[in-house]
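Subject — a protein and its fold
Fields — amino acid sequence, structure tokens
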Amino acid sequence: MERPLHTVVVSVVVRDADKKVLMIKHPLRGWELPQGHVESGEDLFEAVSREVLEESGYEVEVERLLAVFSKVDPLPTSVVFGFCACVTGGEATTSEESLEVGWFDEVLARDLAEHPVNRERIKLLLQQGAGVGYFSYRVSPFGMFRAEEI
């Protein structure tokens, strides 16, 4: 049996003191939560901090893991760790990965997400309870087919 190779990704719900949610506008996917690939040898919390800083200009403190998502098709498959964090410093800064940076209430944040996968992920992360959610999904055609709270 061939060993699967997965891309490891972090996605982050960042809130400010007013409980607004940080969103970035990616040049291809539109509005989404800060997210990105974990680099080789990088701790997941370090990846969260680095991705948020690179994409938004904000420094964060990771609070907890909210959910794990398994993308099972098409290749490359990936495992996405969804965290929540609070902003601790910095200021809005755009990058090659973010044309705009903004803070939005939960309802607007959910509505802004354009890509179906990102729209579903933000919805699930924002409604996640005290446990850690586990979700599996396919991209083509898009659909969640397993959802559990651990």
Notes: Residues 32 and 118 are 6 Å apart (CA to CA).
